Automatic annotation (TrEMBL):
Catalytic activity: adenosine 5'-phosphosulfate + ATP = 3'-phosphoadenylyl sulfate + ADP + H(+)
Enzyme class: transferase
List of residues binding ATP: G235, L236, S237, G238, S239, G240, K241, S242
Originating organism: Nonomuraea rosea
Official protein name in the record: Adenylyl-sulfate kinase
Length: 404
């Protein structure tokens, strides 16, 4: 079978394949994880600070081989399954099938053995970075004292990764000639002590005689009116969500203070999701596609308005996480007009066809609508005009500071 790991698993996989996580040869199983948590070592007694795990939603058996894909669908590694736990945790050794090509700054990703060969036995002062470096003079002075090559290791995981690499390249220009920059996709660990220990382990793998951990970046979010925002409407067909969404778009365009992108559910289905059915799997895929485009819009400070039915809570949560991951804000608006009122309106005749069995898997009739319990705003348009509903949403945006 084939499987695409999530971003954290993918980052760990790259470090397993490169040798930066030696002595690990693959993902950890139950016994190793227990030993890591309890004693900071593997089951065989080898020191190791942090869990390195992979979860599969499909069932596999010992001896099965799973091809692990990168985000573009290219084979990256083969995992030979040693065991699978009840929660989907899979352990086993991995073997590389090709050099990682995905993501930015691929040219700066080098293996520890390649870097050690370039060092040629010279000592190295490794500096691991998750943000810009405060004092380059201290780094230069320490390297001079050690007679060491400076090795900048920007930890290029996640959305902030490219900025960290750029900070390393800027620092390289101001440091002594011969300073090396190697991009390392090390995901941060929650406990600072464990994160530091893992950074030191990776630095040693790259040939460091000494290691300096750069300061953690200070993240101060900008004011709401400058941040990306996704306004995500959900509700039954005929609830009024698309009409409210269009009204909000027009109101924001009249204000002119935000760049607005409007993603209507029906329009998206004719373009971005053409060919998809109304099965649960295809509905989820449709919402993920909408969420991806909306998150990309918000990533660059834009305001995206989405108006799909989005009947399933799990998929709505995925979209919220997509938006959160790019540092933008997410506002869920539940247009909670009751089914009876939506059927009464039924200007497309869809409910009548669904009741007659002509439309299978129709939300609210033959397929469930999971009402959100995490909506920031709930609107019932049964006795509310569209203008009043738009005013409610706009008022929420103003009170939250997203619109001035």
């Amino acid at each position: 079978m084939e499987w695409t790991p999530d971003p954290r698993e993918l980052a760990d996989l790259e470090l397993l394949l490169s040798g930066a996580f030696e002595p690990l040869a693959g993902f950890l199983g139950h016994d190793d994880l227990h030993a890591v948590h309890e004693r900071g070592m593997l089951a065989d007694g080898s020191p190791w600070p942090a869990p390195v795990t992979l979860h599969l939603s499909a069932e596999v058996a010992p001896g099965d081989e799973v091809t692990l894909l990168d985000p573009e669908g290219l084979p990256l590694a083969a995992l030979t399954v040693a065991a699978q736990e009840a929660d989907g945790l899979v352990s086993g050794p991995v073997k590389g099938l090709g050099a990682p090509e995905h993501g930015p700054f691929a040219r700066l990703r080098r293996t520890p053995s390649e870097v050690r060969a370039e060092l040629g036995g010279r000592p190295a002062l490794a500096v691991t970075m998750r943000g810009p470096l405060d004092d380059l003079s201290e780094i230069a002075a320490t390297a001079k004292e050690l007679d060491a090559v400076i090795l900048l290791l920007p930890l290029s995981y996640g959305e902030a990764g490219p900025a960290v690499v750029r900070a390393a390249l800027r620092a390289q220009e101001k440091l002594p000639p011969g300073t090396l920059v190697v991009s390392v996709p090390l995901a941060p660990r929650e406990e600072p002590e464990i994160d530091l220990e893992l950074r030191e382990h990776v630095a040693t793998a790259y040939g460091a005689a000494e290691h300096l951990a750069g300061p953690e970046p200070v993240s101060i979010p900008g004011p709401p009116h400058r941040r990306g925002l996704v306004v995500f409407f959900t509700g039954l067909s005929g609830s009024g969500k698309s009409t409210i969404a269009r009204g909000l778009r027009d109101a924001l365009l009249e204000l002119g203070s935000r760049t607005v992108t409007y993603l209507d559910g029906d329009v998206v289905r004719h373009l971005l999701s053409k060919g998809l059915t109304f099965s649960k799997a295809d509905r989820d895929l449709n919402i993920r596609r909408i969420g991806f485009v909306a998150a990309e819009t918000a990533r660059h400070g834009g305001l995206a308005i989405c108006a799909p039915i989005a009947p399933y809570a799990g998929t709505r949560e995925e979209v919220r996480e997509m938006v959160d991951s790019v540092g933008a804000d997410f506002l869920l608006v539940h247009v909670a007009t009751p089914l009876e009122e939506c059927e009464r309106r039924d200007r497309k005749g869809l409910y009548a066809k669904a009741r007659a069995g002509l439309i299978p898997e129709f939300t609210g009739i033959s397929d469930p609508y999971e009402e959100p319990d995490d909506a920031e705003l709930v609107i019932d348009t049964t006795h509310l005009s569209i203008d009043a509903a738009v005013s409610q949403v706009l008022g929420t945006l103003r009170s939250g500071g997203w619109v001035r």
